Amino acid sequence: MSGKVYLVGAGPGDPDLLTVKALRVLRSADVVLHDDLVTPEVLALAPRSAEILNVGKRCGRKSLTQDDINGRMILAVSDGKTVARLKGGDPLIFGRAGEEIEALRASGIPFEVIPGVTAALAAAASARISLTDRRLASRLLFLAGHRSPDGRASTVREAWTRDTTIVMYMPGERVSEFARELHKAGMPSKTPCLAVSEASTPREQIHRATLEELEQAGGWPSPTLLIVGDVAATAHAGSPEQTERKSVLELAEAWLA
C-alpha cells in the first residue's frame, strides 16, 4: 500500500491563500474529497484525471455520512491512491478532522495534516483589523455557531471579558440568540460587530453592526463569520466593489422577505 491521505486546509476561498504544500498535494492527488465551502477556484487546481467528490454537510444537508467519507478515504488508500481531503479554512478548526484522524489511525492508514488559513484570519485581513490589538483585546475566542450532536450550543457567559475578541463561525440562524446571550453576559449593547461573508473571494461583503442591532437581525447569507468586540470598531471598509455599506436591519429585512 503506497497511498496516503492528506487532510488539507483549503483556506478561506482565494486560491492564492493556499500554502505551497497544499497546492503541491492537490496537484498530485488521485482523489479529492472536498467540503461544500471549498471554492471552484481552488478545485480547478486539481488534476483533470482526479476523481473529485463533494462530501460537504453544509446547512445540515448531507451528501455522505461521516462513516461514508471515512470509508472512501480508506478504500482509496488501500488501492494505492493519494487522497486530498480538502477542508475549508484550516482542517483542525471546526472541520471534523478529529473524527477522520481517529478513523485513519484505527485503520492503520498513513496520513498527514496540512494547515490552512482559517476564515477568521482572512476576515480580519479583509476588514484590516487586528484581532488582538494590544490596546483593545488580549484574548481571542473562537466559537462554532452550530450545535454539537448532543444538542448543546456554544456558550460565552463564563468565557467573555471586555478585552476578548469573539469570532463566531457559521452563525446561521443563531445570530439573534447569540447576541442576546452576549448581552446577558454583560457585553454593552453598543459593542461593535462585523459580519464578513465569503471572505477573500470576489463575492466578499463586510457589514458593520452593533450588538444591539444583531439582536434584531435574522439569518445571514452563508458562509458568514461574525467578529464581536472593540477591535471591530477599527475596521476600514474595502473598495466599493468589495463592500456593501448597508445596515444590518436593511440586510435582515431583505433576507427574510
Features:
257 residues; Methyltransferase, Cobalt-precorrin-4 Transmethylase, Domain 2; elongated; alpha/beta; 8 helices; five-stranded parallel sheet; five-stranded mixed sheet; Cobalt-precorrin-4 Transmethylase, domain 1
Question: Can you walk me through this structure?
Answer:
This protein has 257 residues and is of the alpha/beta class. The protein has 2 domains: 4-114, Tetrapyrrole methylase, N-terminal domain (Cobalt-precorrin-4 Transmethylase, domain 1), CATH 3.40.1010; 119-256, Tetrapyrrole methylase, C-terminal domain (Methyltransferase, Cobalt-precorrin-4 Transmethylase, Domain 2). It is built from 8 helices and 10 strands. The strands form 2 sheets. A 5-stranded parallel beta sheet has the order 3-2-4-1-5, sandwiched between helices. The longest helix is centred in the N-terminal third of the chain and has 13 residues, at 66-78. The model is unreliable at 238-246 (pLDDT under 50).
How would you summarize this macromolecular structure in one to three sentences?
With 257 residues, the chain is of the alpha/beta class. Helix content is 26%, strand content 21%.
